[in-house]
Amino acid sequence: MTTHNPQTLAWQALSGEHHLAPFSDYKQLKEKGPRIITKAHGVHLWDSEGNKILDGMAGLWCVAIGYGRDELADAASQQMRELPYYNLFFQTAHPPALELAKVVAEVAPEGMSHVFFTGSGSEGNDTVLRLVRHYWTLKGQPQKKVVISRLNGYHGSTVAGASLGGMSGMHEQGDLPIPGIVHIAQPYWFGEGGDMSPDEFGIWAADQLEQKILELGVDQVAAFIAEPIQGAGGVIIPPDSYWPRIKEILARYDILFVADEVICGFGRTGEWFGSDYYGLKPDLMTIAKGLTSGYIPMGGVIVRNEVVKVINEGGDFNHGFTYSGHPVAAAVALENIRILRDEKIIERVKSKTAPYLQKRLRELAEHPLVGEVRGLGMLGAIELVADKQTRQRHEGLGVGMICRQFCFDNGLIMRAVGDTMIIAPPLVISFAEIDELIEKARLCLDLTLEAING
Ligand code: PMP
Questions:
Q1: Which pLDDT belongs to residue 4?
Q2: N or C: which end of the chain has fewer CB within 10 A?
Q3: Residue 135 contacts residue 307 (beta carbons within 8 Å)
Q4: Residue 6 to residues 3, 49, 190, 229, 272, Cα–Cα distance (Å)
Q5: Which residues of the chain have pLDDT under 70?
Q6: Distance between CA 286 and CA 282 in Å, rounded?
Q7: Any ligand 1 atom below 6 A from CB of 163
Q8: pTM of the predicted protein model
C-alpha cells in the first residue's frame, strides 16, 4: 500500500530489509510493502494508517471468540509466572496440559478421549502421518502406509502437511508429495461438476475414494484424510450426497479416517466439530486455530479410544515437539474453551447469527458478478463469474484479487481463492456487524464490476 506516514514507511522498510513473509508474492511485497496491522478489538482490526477494518476472516480462520479478551491475556500471564515452560517428554507432565486434554475430550465426539498436543495444525498432520503408520505396524500390517487425500485440500505447510494437502503450487516448490501420499478429486461442484447435478457429482467424487482404495489394494492403505469443509481451497461445501457416500465406503474397508478439523473445529459450523455437523465418525481429528482462538499457537490430534488402545500397547512412540502441550498455550486454550462454553457462543452461532449471516449472504447471489453463494455456519463463499448460467470465469483478469483489494480499501477483509471470495468471521460477530460485512461486500462487488467493465 502507498502511504506518506513515516511510521508506516519505517515498518515497511523493515519488511523489505529483514523479513521473509509466509505465503506472499515476494516481488509484489517488495514493491508495495505490507499493510501493517497494529491493533484489534472484537471483530475489527486497525492498521497503522488508522483505518478500521472488519475482519471477515477471523485472522486466518482462528479468532473464534474475537479480539481483545483480557481473560486470555490474564490466563497466559498467570501461567507464565507459575510455570512458563516444561515439557511432556520422558514420563513428565504438567497440570495445564492434562486439564486441557480432559476438557478437549469433553467437547470431542464420543469415544475420542485422548489428545496429542502440537504447536500448530501442520505439526498436527505430521503427527497424524506418524500415528497412523505406527498404528498399522503395531497391528501387524506395516505395509499399510498410504494415505489418501484430496486435490485442493489444505493440511498445512510442513513437508508432511503440504504433501497431505493437494495444493499444486506447494507441491511444485519442494518436490512434493513425499512417497506414500496420493490424491483423489475434490467435491467442488461449482468448479468441476460440469453437467452433473450437485448430488450426482457428490457421488462421483466420493466414489473416487473407493476406486483409489481398490486400485492401491486395501492392504496398502492406512488412512483417508479430509477437511469436513475445505477451507483454504475455497470454502468448498460438498454436495449433500458426498459425506453419506464416503461414510458407506469407509465402512466397507479397514482404513482409518482422519478429519482435519483445523478450520471446522471449535464451532465454525455451529457444532463443536465439522464431524458433528456431518455425523462423521473419525478415528483421528486434527485441531488448531479455534482451540486457542489464535491468541497463542497450539494444535493437536484427538484420537479414538480403539486406536489409543493399540498405541498404548506399543511402547515408545518416537515423536514429539519441544512445545507439545506448552503450559502457557494450554492455559490460554482452557480459558478460550471456558468462554466458548460459558457464553454459549457456538449455540448462538447455530440458532441465531449463522442463519442470519447465511440469509444475508445469499442476497448477494443477485449481483451480476456472482455465480453462486454458498455457506454454512460462519463460513461463506462467493463465486465471481462472467456468465451465471455456464459458470464461466472472467479468464485472466484476476477478478478475485481486484475484489480483495477493493475490500481492503473499503474496510473489509475478504480473502480471494482464485475468483472465489471467502469469509469466515469471528464466531462472536453481531447482527449489526453482519449487516456491515454484507453491505461492504456488496459495495466491493459493485466496484469490481465497474473496474472490469470500465
Ligand atoms: N489444516 C487445515 C484444514 C488448515 O486450514 C490449516 C491452516 N490453514 C492447517 C491444517 C495448518 O495449520 P497451521 O497453519 O497451524 O500449521
A1: 87
A2: C
A3: yes
A4: 8, 10, 46, 43, 45
A5: 1
A6: 10
A7: no
A8: 0.98
Residue type, 292: T
Q: Please name the residue that has the C-alpha cell 495445564.
A: 96
Evaluate whether 192 touches 186 at the Cβ level (below 8 Å): yes
Find out whether 131 and 284 touch, Cβ atoms under 8 Å: yes
Q: Which of 118, 123, 155 to mutate to test the pocket of ligand 1 (most atoms within 8 A of CB)?
A: 155
What's the pLDDT score for residue 2? 76
For atom 1 of ligand 1, the residue with the nearest CA is 155
pLDDT for the residue 1 = 66
**What are phi and psi for residue 280, nearest 5 degrees?**
-85, 160
Phi, psi of 109 (to 5 degrees): -55, 155
Determine whether the shortest distance from the Cβ of 232 to ligand 1 is under 6 A: yes
Q: Which of 154, 157, 258 to mutate to test the pocket of ligand 1 (most atoms within 8 A of CB)?
A: 154
